[in-house]
Design goal:
Layout (H helix, E strand, L loop, with lengths): L2 E3 L6 E3 L1 E4 L10 H13 L4 E3 L8 H13 L7 E6 L13 H15 L4 E6 L8 H13 L3 E6 L4 H13 L7 E2 L9 H6 L1 H7 L2 E4 L29 H5 L3 H16 L4 H10 L6 E4 L4 H8 L1 H4 L5 H11 L7
Parallel strand pairs: 3-4, 3-10, 4-5, 5-6, 6-7, 7-8, 8-9, 9-10
Antiparallel strand pairs: 1-2
Helix pairs in contact: 1-2, 1-11, 2-3, 3-4, 4-5, 9-13
Length: 323
């Protein structure tokens, strides 16, 4: 396993990590979650990602139970959770001081831990002043309930504003963003966020490297009944992610992966890992064998030469242009 610094911080994250989105508490139960987490841990993964909104809190319960029963030393793990969608009551969601403090208390109880290493603001909150959110996150960090805080799917302008406010008032600034990043979703990560890497030393924990499974090739012949896109509540994937144009490009990427002796999924993961601004790539898995196969992407990164990247870019045709 390769370990990368989270931006300019001293925290080191496994280059490949494991997340609980959709799967834990919804698609799979604790037994499968345990097998997947164990396979990841034994491969050297130290970062496990979660959120209060995943499975309505059940994902945190499952992950916390697995860690406790496995007896893994807390110091060996980097755990994260994200706050925004805590419930249906008016103050059970968003990034108000009230919800951040109450939300982190509930999350820690579900995870059965005294602290999380990373605490994310899961989305920007238009109803709460950024200063209020920054002050609340600073309190959580000072209380030792989180070591670092960050953002997820915030604009670069919002992040720069949060950083400036924190420094103006002597508060803890954010240090990490959790953005979507894959072969079909690039502009924000590669272009808009460039100032964050250069000026703020921001780290990243990227999600959806396989574009909800599209980049594995499993949707080339339609939507399998047991796939994520077929789950109730995730029908949007079929319209927003799985398009005829993208499927055609995935088919054209297959020979490139084959020439490298890799699967399409491994090629997509290695492509993300090749970007130096990626601190870690969050993977998902519903079977331990998927974890094992995903980890092999690390060995593929050195094979992505400039020539191979040119072949990939010729297929994608979406490289962001400098303004």
């Amino acid at each position: 396993m390769e370990y990368r610094r989270m931006g300019k911080s001293g925290l080191k994250l496994s280059a490949l990590s494991l997340g609980a989105w959709v799967t834990y508490g919804e698609q799979v139960g604790e037994e499968i979650a345990r097998d997947c987490m164990t396979a990841a841990f034994e491969a050297g993964v130290n970062f496990f990602d979660n959120a209060e909104g995943y499975g309505r809190g059940n994902a945190e319960v499952v992950m916390g139970s697995v860690i406790r029963k496995a007896g893994w030393r807390r110091e060996k793990l980097v755990l994260s959770t994200k706050l925004f969608w805590g419930g249906s009551a008016p103050n059970d969601m968003g990034l108000s001081h009230k919800h951040i403090v109450e939300g982190v208390h509930k999350a820690l109880k579900r995870l059965q831990t005294d602290y999380v290493d990373l605490l994310f603001c899961h989305r920007p909150d238009p109803d709460t002043p950024i200063e209020e959110t920054v002050r609340a996150m600073d309190i959580v960090v000072r209380q030792g309930k989180a070591f670092y805080w960050g953002t997820s799917e915030w604009s670069a302008a919002e992040i720069v504003r949060a950083d400036a406010l924190a420094r103006q008032y002597g508060l803890t600034p954010p240090s990490v963003e959790q953005p979507q990043y894959h072969m079909f979703h690039r502009r924000r990560f590669e272009q808009e966020y460039d100032i964050l890497y250069r000026e703020l030393g921001y780290g990243t924990t990227t999600w959806s490297p396989l574009a909800s499974g599209l980049l594995t090739g499993k949707y080339n012949a339609g939507v399998p009944a047991d796939s994520r896109a077929a789950l109730k509540g995730y029908e949007w994937i079929q319209g927003a992610v799985i398009t005829p144009e993208r499927i055609e490009k995935v088919k054209r990427l297959a020979p490139i992966a084959a020439d490298l002796g890799a699967s399409l999924a491994q090629l997509a993961l290695a492509w993300c890992l090749r970007n130096p601004n990626v601190s870690t790539v969050i993977t998902g898995a519903s079977r331990p064998q998927q974890v094992v196969e995903n980890m092999k992407a690390l060995d593929l990164v050195p094979k992505l030469t400039d020539e191979v990247i040119e072949r990939i870019e010729a297929v994608l045709g979406n490289k962001p242009r400098a303004d």
